[in-house]
Amino acid sequence: MAAGFAFAKRGAVRYRCGRMIGSTFADFTVLDKINHGGMATIYLVADRQGQRLILRMLLPEHRFHWSRLRQFRWGCKVMAQLDHPNIVRYYGSGKYNGLRYAIIEYVEGPNLKEAILRNDPNLRSNQRKLLTGMAAALAHVHERGFLHLDFKPENVLVAKSYDSKLIDFDLSIPRPTRPRREPKLAGTPLYLAPEQIARQPVDERADIFAFGITAYEMITGRKPIAGNSREEILEKYGDFKDHLRPPRALVPDIPHSLERVILKCLEKRPADRYPAMSLVVRDLQT
User: Fold this and answer.
1) What was the pLDDT predicted at 13?
2) Which of 29, 19, 5, 30 is nearest to 60 (CA)?
3) Out of 48, 140, 204, 256, which residue is the most buried by the measure of CB atoms under 10 Å away?
4) Domain boundary among 62, 82, 105
5) Which residue has the higher pLDDT, 97 or 1?
6) Are residues 142 and 279 in the same domain?
7) DSSP of 21-62, one letter per residue?
8) Residue 159 in contact with residue 122, Cβ under 8 Å?
9) Could you tell me if 242 and 158 lie in one domain?
10) Is residue 179 domain-shared with residue 198, that is, in the same domain?
11) What is the C-alpha separation between 92 and 80, in angstroms, rounded?
């Protein structure tokens, strides 16, 4: 928890998402609403010293929903154990007027998905920097004993300096010592590894595959496969090589070395991928 931050606890719920802007919430001034999802609302806030931060507030309708509360608190617990320049910094969490919240680093800039959709020309000139940062962030997550399991462009922020910042650890799990089958299929299907879609045991190589899809999309502007359902995606994974076009077939002037890294991350069989994210970082740096 950062020095000087007071994480207050109060009783009855009085705040509602639409009335937050301009108010004071747990000693933070709410400046703007940034995003609203199915789990939480994201606000830009300022502390007493004027530092801008992000307030992530669990939706009021989830305050008595045990699984949502547990997921939110788990994401905070994971972030508290991470410390890397390519991961948003976590400052602490609390409960104020009955609402559960977390305070994290504010990154001025879009997420990677938004940057891809608007064809940001600087993605190309900073591609190696962005990819190395994302890979280093995932390597750190794995080294600290977790899998991310929801790696996708929406969960990567692009700072003004074109440094990448990994976010959203609600679906993370402890890193298993050997591949393990998860009881529930979670995450966005188009970024899940074949073994996840097929409900087979997973390990850090599932994150490596998701990194490969994200890298492919950032470089080419399209996903390696498309589908509207788990069944359609699973069917296409059956003959993945027929659907997967090498990145240079779409963008001929990208370096051969970069294409090799992406394609090795995207091997259908986990045994054929990189065994560790640190090796992806190594090859991106050479």
Assistant:
1) 40
2) 19
3) 204
4) 105
5) 97
6) yes
7) TTSEETTEEEEEEEEE-SSEEEEEEE-TT--EEEEEEE-GGG
8) no
9) yes
10) yes
11) 8
* Residues 174 and 257 reside in one and the same domain: yes
* Residues 162 and 262 occupy one common structural domain: yes
Triad 21, 57, 186: Cα angle to 5°: 140
Q: Show the tokens assigned to 156.
A: 């990567």
Asked whether residue 92 falls in the same domain as residue 144, the answer is: no
> pLDDT tens for residues 8-35?
444 434 445 457 888 899 989 999 999 8
pTM confidence score: 0.90
Looking up tokens 């890397």, which residue turns up? 84
Give the pLDDT of residue 16. 52
Q: For the chain, what percent of residues have pLDDT higher than 90?
A: 71
3-state SS class at 237: helix
Structural domain contains residue 7 = no
Distance CA 191, CA 73 (A): 24
Is the residue at 210 inside a domain? Answer: yes
Is residue 190 pLDDT above 70, yes or no? Answer: yes
In this structure, the answer to whether residues 257 and 134 fall within a common structural domain is yes
Q: Which of 84, 105, 126 is the last residue of a domain?
A: 105
Shared-domain flag, residues 93 and 127:
no
With residue 13 as reference, give the H or E element that holds it.
Answer: none
- Token pair, residue 107, equals 């990154």
- pLDDT of the residue at 149: 95
Residue 96 near residue 25 (C-beta atoms within 8 A): yes
Domain count, the chain: 2
For residue range 215-269, list pLDDT tens digits in order: 999 999 998 887 777 777 777 777 777 778 899 999 999 999 999 999 999 999 9
CA 92 and chain centroid, separation? 19
Range of the domain at 170: 112-284
